[in-house]
Amino acid sequence: MTTVLDRRGSRAWVDNAVRLIEADAQRSADTHLLRYPLPPSWNVQLYLKDESTHITGSLKHRLARSLFLYSICNGWVTENTTVIEASSGSTAVSEAYFANLLGLDFVAVMPASTSPAKIALIEAQGGRCHFVTDPSRIYDESHRLAAETGGHYMDQFTHAERATDWRGNNNIAESIFTQLQQEDHPIPEWIVVGAGTGGTGATIGRFLRYRKLDTGLCVVDPEHSVFFDAWRAGDPTVTGERGSRIEGIGRPRVEPSFIGQVVDRMVKVPDAGSIAAMRHASDTLGRKVGGSTGTNLWGAFGLVGEMLAAGRSGSVVTLLCDGGERYSGTYFDDAWVASEGIDLTGPAAVLDEFTKTGRWTAS
């Protein structure tokens, strides 16, 4: 006897979910590529891909969109799925937005010490927050909640590098090179990114190779993160004992989405450098930018200084990951900086010298 089990009827929700996500993308113009003000006589251009203009305010909006499409098309997320993520920051805000768009429940698993401001951002997008006392338990607790609810743990740290089509299809790398086409140096010497999941670096590094582009990928890594140490040692099992102070980037373990083989250079950035560069850029641009943007710029300024010292012209691109309004009580607060034992005097002097002369004197 022939037995037939047909589940094709469930495709109607999938089709509509994909349509809603794609319609949301169509309503949003691509993010701007800003030209950072450097002296014209240097003949080196620095660009900032402004990801803060996404509707949820950060680079993670792209990741969340890709993760939802990936999970839906894999059949992991359906019309009654509770979506769960291990995140207390921008990824949770963006995933909560897309879950709300699709009428799905969303739970962000986070440390109990998470600030009320971050919790409020997630809840404003319709998400719920689930707290753990031990931050190292967020992964296991996310798996447990998914099993308990019959939901899906999105797991940005594993799926970030595979959810985005790195060959094109309007990923961030393709967008950058399209926007550079009419510039003086349309093929940049370097693209500089930080690593949180590692997915953005993986996407850009693969795209550079696929398109045979003569551009280097530089990944900047903050204090207390192990990506740099693991990459230098060639040992992905390296772990650390605490998390990064620079939100959105840096991890105490090497996440599965970090593909070190596509990285051409890494730079370890002190937290004082990240915060000083963030403040410096905020003054220069007339708008507040976040800490991870400061990390990116510290690395980018160093590369510009290296090009100037070698007498080379060209361009460098990095990311403006999110706005600085979220950090008024931390990175922009002198009392908080002092309480963390961070001295901005040295990095501020490095930035002042670079602005005046183009020389990069950071050790």
Kindly list the characteristics that best describe this protein.
single chain, Rossmann fold, 10 strands, 363 residues, 6-stranded mixed sheet, 13 helices, 4-stranded parallel sheet, globular, 14% strand, 2 domains, alpha/beta
Task: Itemize the secondary structure elements and their pairings.
Elements: H1 11-26, E1 33-36, E2 44-50, H2 60-73, E3 83-86, H3 90-101, E4 106-111, H4 116-124, E5 128-132, H5 138-149, E6 152-153, H6 156-163, H7 172-179, E7 190-194, H8 199-210, E8 216-222, H9 227-233, E9 265-269, H10 271-285, H11 291-309, E10 314-320, H12 334-339, H13 345-357
Parallel strand pairs: 2-10, 3-4, 3-6, 4-5, 7-8, 7-10, 8-9
Antiparallel strand pairs: 1-2
Helix pairs in contact: 1-2, 2-3, 2-6, 3-4, 6-8, 10-11, 10-13
Shape: globular
User: What is the share of helical residues?
Assistant: 40-55%
Order of strands, main sheet, comes to 1-2-10-7-8-9
N to C succession of SSEs: HEEHEHEHEHEHHEHEHEHHEHH
Total of helices: 13
User: What is the CATH class of the largest domain?
Assistant: Alpha Beta
- Uncertain residue segments: none
Strand-residue fraction? 5-15%
Number of strands: 10
Distance between the termini: 76 Å
Q: Measured on Cα atoms, how large is the radius of gyration?
A: 21 Å
Mean pLDDT: 94
Largest sheet: 6 strands, mixed
CATH architecture of the largest domain: 3-Layer(aba) Sandwich
Classify the fold: give the CATH topology of the largest domain: Rossmann fold
When the domains are counted, the total is 2
Class from helix and strand fractions: alpha/beta
Report on the structure:
This protein has 363 residues and is of the alpha/beta class. It folds into 2 domains: 29-53 and 163-357, Rossmann fold (3-Layer(aba) Sandwich); 60-160, Rossmann fold (3-Layer(aba) Sandwich). It has helices spanning 11-26, 60-73, 90-101, 116-124, 138-149, 156-163, 172-179, 199-210, 227-233, 271-285, 291-309, 334-339, 345-357; strands at residues 33-36, 44-50, 83-86, 106-111, 128-132, 152-153, 190-194, 216-222, 265-269, 314-320. It has a 6-stranded mixed β-sheet with strand order 1-2-10-7-8-9, with helices on both faces. Strands 5-4-3-6 form a 4-stranded parallel β-sheet, with helices on both faces. Strand 3, helix 3 and strand 4 (106-111) form a beta-alpha-beta unit. Helix 2 packs across helix 3 and helix 10 (271-285) crosses helix 13. It is globular and about 80 Å long. The mean pLDDT is 94.
